[in-house]
Amino acid sequence: MAHKKIAVIVAGSWGTALSRVLADNGHYVKLWTRNAAQADQINSERRNEKFLPGAILPEGITATTDIAEAVTDAEAVLFVAPSSAMREVARQAANFLHKEALVVHATKGFESDTLKRMTTVLAEELGRPEQYIVVLSGPSHAEEVVNRLPTTIVVASKDIACAETAQDLFMNEAYFRVYTNPDYIGVETAGAIKNIIALGAGLSDGLGFGDNAKAALITRGLAEIARLGAAMGANPLTFAGLAGVGDLIVTCTSQHSRNWRAGSMLAQGLPLAEVLERMGMVVEGVRTTKAAHALAVQHGVEMPITDQLYSVLFEGLSPENAVGALMGRVRTHEIEEIASASRNKWLKG
């Protein structure tokens, strides 16, 4: 495959790690950041110490604070902005984006005020149908990817040509394997909601509840993801794949996960504002909990774990009482509960 000019927006941990993958594959990467000191460090020292301490970046990555320089003539643009900033940076990039450029995003969250998925936000700001935008997701810690540890992800688009172009850009035989999936709604929804369950897993571990409790949380969390995803138009089979159960496992069981760490700190009694200040980076699960809580009401979907985490984060409920509320729920049938949303979706056509 010919080497391409690719813009990556922005230079956080995941954007930087994916820039390494692209540079390792021989592409020319322009990595955009608002922070001039960060850009200087990347260009002069080949490091991004705030987000990926200790990692040395290849020469194929050039950082810039000029979004026009990054996007103009780029054959592909990868958006990795936080969900809260996606609309703003997309609006800035739109003025310089070539109409034939491939658009990919790797952000896991919803827009807080509109509850829209990131593909919808990008489609609105870039003026192109969302089914031609590619979603990159799956079980992938930036700290491992930047160190070239074996990783497998999925790229999703309704347009198979777009998905396969993205697959070719990112896939290599050394450490980064990429699958395609047409269900971009399911991939996107799973990537967002799993951050909520990871908050709960960190909270459970912080309370010392053990592996039994965490296994149950992950499993029941997957049921919540599937119910909401099906209601939003996703294929339920997507949630059994890399973007669903794969990403859920890695995010709920690793201390690399910001959401897990935030949940663990909440279990220690720290207020949310202090947790976020200590993290120093975006914790998407916090915003996503608020959005998913509203989406569950909007779609009439039962999401008890999300409901209890919403109460812990925003209504002052203690973590211990949240667990008690979950354990004391009315008894139900596991398979019937998991299957109901997907069955109803497909019966409706």
Descriptors:
eight-stranded mixed beta sheet; single chain; lipid metabolism; 349 residues; N-(1-d-carboxylethyl)-l-norvaline Dehydrogenase, domain 2; 16 helices; globular; Rossmann fold; glycerol-3-phosphate dehydrogenase (NADP+) activity; 8 strands; 2 domains; alpha/beta
What can you tell me about this protein's structure?
The protein has 16 helices and eight strands. By secondary structure, the protein is of the alpha/beta class. The chain has two domains: 5-182, NAD(P)-binding Rossmann-like Domain (Rossmann fold); 192-347, Orthogonal Bundle (N-(1-d-carboxylethyl)-l-norvaline Dehydrogenase, domain 2). An eight-stranded mixed sheet has the order 3-2-1-4-5-6-7-8, sandwiched between helices. The chain starts with a strand and ends with a helix. The model has no long low-confidence stretch (mean pLDDT 92).
Q: What are the SSEs and their pairings?
A:
Elements: E1 5-9, H1 13-24, E2 28-32, H2 36-45, E3 61-64, H3 67-71, E4 76-79, H4 86-94, E5 102-105, H5 118-126, E6 134-137, H6 142-145, E7 151-156, H7 160-170, E8 176-181, H8 184-206, H9 210-231, H10 242-252, H11 258-267, H12 272-279, H13 284-299, H14 304-314, H15 319-327, H16 334-347
Parallel strand pairs: 1-2, 1-4, 2-3, 4-5, 5-6, 7-8
Antiparallel strand pairs: 6-7
Helix pairs in contact: 4-5, 8-9, 8-10, 8-11, 8-13, 9-10, 9-16, 11-12, 13-14, 14-15
